[in-house]
Amino acid sequence: KNQVEQSPQSLIILEGKNCTLQCNYTVSPFSNLRWYKQDTGRGPVSLTIMTFSENTKSNGRYTATLDADTKQSSLHITASQLSDSASYICVVSAWTDSWGKLQFGAGTQVVVTP
Amino acid sequence: GAGVSQSPSNKVTEKGKDVELRCDPISGHTALYWYRQSLGQGLEFLIYFQGNSAPDKSGLPSDRFSAERTGGSVSTLTIQRTQQEDSAVYLCASSLFGIRGTEAFFGQGTRLTVV
User: Fold this and answer.
1) Which of B94, B106, B112 to mutate to test the interface with A (most CBs of A within 10 A)?
2) B27 burial class (0-12, 13-18, 19+ CB within 10 angstroms)?
């Protein structure tokens, strides 16, 4: 069973609008949570990384939040641009994971339309 | 190089053939990882190399899969007797140290199609 669940699976938004992506996880004991952006045909690129003590982190128009108590994270995209069209992947690691065994969500496919 | 480089970008092979996928990590990165990304699925860990330590092969799905890393740099993932279920994007990543504490950088991936 996947320990990282993302929703929605996909969404379409108009250019200039905001949107929020969700990530729920069961990974324990929690170490950190990352959001990656993956353009079609490219490898994932890191947007944010948050540890247990961090509630929010921003990277330009991307703002990630983390509630370690409820094991939920969100990624908010402000004033979306066409270049934001991509898959957004939530990745969680546990302290007990050996190096490299991150838990990847299946991703949310975002399409920004003019 | 400036980033992680993978080759080929695309590979179409016949069922039963062997394939080799190559990964050139960022210079100086001691850790290298292989992942597989199937359509609609999250990335699946395959194997992890860290310096001169024995690799963590626990994610390899079968004995048809193997990987090596020569001279602590370039890595090759080999799939023998390919099956249709091996069709996926194979991603390589590298990091300065283990991924948990440092950032990992991904290559563009190799799209493998087994026909």
Assistant:
1) B106
2) exposed
